[in-house]
Amino acid sequence: MTRHNPSSRHGGFTLVETLLAIGLVGVLLSLFLVVFVPARGMIRQAMARQEAERITTVLRTEMSMLRGREQAPQSAQTSTSTSFITPFDKAFHWMRRSEKPSTSIVIFSYRADTRERVRPDGTYPALPANANQPNGHTQLITIACPMDDPVHSREIKDAVGNVFLVRMTELERQNNGTFKPAKESGTIKGAQSPERFAIEENNTVRGAIVYYRADFYIMSPPNPARYKNKPWKRLGRPAFSANLSFRR
Known about the structure:
It is built from 2 helices and 8 strands, in the order ααββββββββ. Strands 1, 2, 3, 4, 7 and 8 form a 6-stranded antiparallel beta sheet that branches. A two-stranded antiparallel sheet has the order 5-6.
């Protein structure tokens, strides 16, 4: 005769055990979210800072050098808006372009085809946006140039990542030694040309240096034609800003 043991259990979990397991998973998930979500935010912030520093460095570097097609002839006595005697002259004219977005400076990256001939400014032509996959014949280039630049403006549509539009506003020294942004961007107090610009204090010329605030806006969409008649106030808040300077 077969005897049944009333204390024997069938396979599976009881309701209490199931609830305990669910509770444990919930606690672990909560701990994971507490640690992981802030970490993701910190990573995004760090990446944003790195991007801001990289874009700011590109602007400062480009405003402190002259590319081949930007250099004025040796016989030139003054610089023009596109041909410069010194890097200071270039920075001076570039800053004045910030009077309106349609002529201001843009910064963007594009994938260049290194099999093509190098252009007079030392850069390679951009690959079309639908063919800019990385390979052994491409190079990612980040450049700053006027929005209406005759060469690079055509490559904005082929940009990789964000296109930044730069607004430069002079920081005017106050009587208490602090600096305050000028009312209008693109203006430089005290001179209409870089050749005549110098700072005087107590009847003493102490050099040619311009302090300015650079506001970086993300162009969305990255289409220069959309900014032709658009004022700065229509662009909203900048993605980030930096206080910079250039000097002779």
